[in-house]
Amino acid sequence: MSIVLEARQVSKNFGGFHAVRNVNLRVQEGNIHALIGPNGAGKTTLFGLLTRFHSASSGSIFLKGEDITAKGPAEVALRGLCRSFQISSIFPGLTLRDNVRVALQRRYGSSHQFWLPSRVLSRFDDEAEQLLDLVGLTSLAQRLCSEVSYGRKRALEIATTLAMQPKVLLLDEPIAGMAAGDVPMIVELIRSVAKDRTVVMVEHNLSVVESLCDKVTVLVRGEVMAEGTYREIRDNPAVREAYIGAGYEV
Ligand SMILES: Nc1ncnc2c1ncn2[C@@H]1O[C@H](COP(=O)(O)OP(=O)(O)O)[C@@H](O)[C@H]1O
Ligand SMILES: [Mg+2]
After folding, report:
1. Tens of pLDDT along 109-122?
2. Protein residues near ligand 2, an ion, with CB under 5 A
3. What highest taxon heads this organism's lineage (predicted)?
4. Ligand 2: centre distance to CA 139 (Å)
């Protein structure tokens, strides 16, 4: 198994505050790798560093062995490393199908032309159908995004990210805020999209981590506290203390 994504001694300071400090992370190709830790631990910042939305204060980032530390976020996305975008990047007034078609045309470099006429967008119809099918939204394709549940919006968000054809997909709290009934749908969706790509996910729900993830990295106050399988992490006294101290159940 090869390492597809690697952070070496990566740090990020915000005005002297160390949000991420000397983090080493090695993600194996094909894994679902969880990033866990209390709120404020630096998980989202680390995602921003990996995808080059943030520039690192120090350290290096490698994608498939290539140093991407100096690359921009669009370049990194085209090389196959994509994070799911926040739900606000979904257009509520468009149908689910049109949201996916707009995301597909982004891949072809026309990101600012979301008003393209529908005959141009229709080029992407087949691919849009496949993506909607993959995330279980085919029957809702014609519905407006504003009309569907939060869970379906998160599934749509994953479809629009998959439109970029990522080899490595970063998901930041994919089930946060979701009704309990929608959680199994997203868990199964993650399992299925992970079949032919690598997934790194921030997740607070530890039973989801246990059922989905091959490996877990624990971040506390910007630093890696532990790394291992879920079982190893769960039995680590320092992790238990950090979690219990922060009010989480382990
Ligand atoms: N743009 C920023 N400017 C200043 N501080 C930030 C910025 N982004 C995040 N932080 C701080 O960095 C720390 C880590 O934040 P974050 O990465 O969002 O944590 P997590 O995702 O683990 O909850 C927090 O204390 C947060 O307030
Ligand atoms: Mg976060």
Report:
1. 655 555 566 666 67
2. 43-44
3. Bacteria
4. 32
Choosing among 3.30.420.40, 3.90.1640.30, 3.40.50.300, 2.40.170.20, the CATH entry for 82-165 is 3.40.50.300
Which atom of ligand 1 is closest in space to residue 47's alpha carbon? Answer: 17
* Domain spanning 1-80+168-178+198-250: CATH 3.40.190.150: no
Which amino acid residue places its CA nearest to atom 1 of ligand 1? 14
Closest CA to 175 of 194, 145, 153: 153
Of 245 and 187, more confident: 187
Q: Which residues line ligand 1 (CB under 6 A)?
A: 14, 17, 19, 37, 39-45
Q: Which stretch of DSSP H or E encloses residue 132?
A: helix 125-134
CA distance 163 to 198: 15
Q: Give the Å distance between the CA of 54 and the centre of ligand 2.
A: 14
Sheet with 3-14, strands from edge to edge, namely 17-28, 3-14, 58-63, 66-67
Q: What is the pLDDT of residues 45-102, one digit of tens each?
A: 999 999 999 999 999 999 999 999 999 998 998 899 999 865 557 899 999 999 999 8
- Give CA 66 to chain center in angstroms: 20
Degrees, nearest 5: CA angle 11-14-15? 125
